[in-house]
Each structure stands twice: as C-alpha cells, then as structure tokens.
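Shall we go through a protein fold together, starting from nothing but its sequence? Label the sequence line and the structure token line clearly, so we can match residues to local backbone shapes. Would you write everything just below, so we can both look at the same thing?
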Amino acid sequence: MPLKLIENLQKLGFTGNEAKVYASLVCLKQAKASEIAENAGVPRPKIYGTLRGMEKKGYVRIIEGEPTFFCCVQPEVLILRIRADFMLSLSETASELESLTPGSNNFTSRNFNGEKIRV
C-alpha cells in the first residue's frame, strides 16, 4: 500500500494502524481480523482494538457471525463525511474566534496589500 496514502489518511485524523487497516480493507472488501492484520502489517494483538475503534468512528462495519468479518465504509462516503465534519469544525472555530475579537462583528483579516478579506 502506498506510503503517501497512509500519510494522507493520518493527516485526516487516522492513526497509523487505522490508516493501514482502512487501506487494506478497501482492497480486501471484506475480511476476517487475521487476514486484515496480515495484509495491513498490524500486529495481531492490536487488530481487534483498532477495528473496534474504527467502528466507533464510522470507518468500519462489523459483520457479526462465526467468523466475524469486517468491511470498510466506501471511500466516497468516508470522504464526504470527513469533509462535512471539517467544514463544520472550521465554521464553528471561525465563529468562536470572531466572538473573541473585541469590537468586531466580522472575522476579517488583511492580505499583504492591506485589503480586508472575509474569512
């Protein structure tokens, strides 16, 4: 799996193991924990904790049964979710920062020409 992909997933908030597991599941489609661990290069003692954590974050679905299988949320869905979460956080942060700016109702900045720009 490409190192750049793992690095980019980490920039989006994935841990190193989560990034490896997600990339592996995109390729595998659906797999047992032992198969994911082997494919992703994640130590077997850590794979179940990683998968359960990823389920809580909405990155992975667990298919209960004997054996238990795991599959990832489709990349398109994941990207849309991450984008929406990021935009919400950005908007909330801008509002909170604006409320901290004394005497200002607009969160503005100046570019290097001295012009006001709205953020």
User: Anything to note?
Assistant: The chain has a mean pLDDT of 89. Strands lie at 30-31, 60-63, 69-72, 108-110, 116-118. DSSP finds five helices and five strands in the chain.
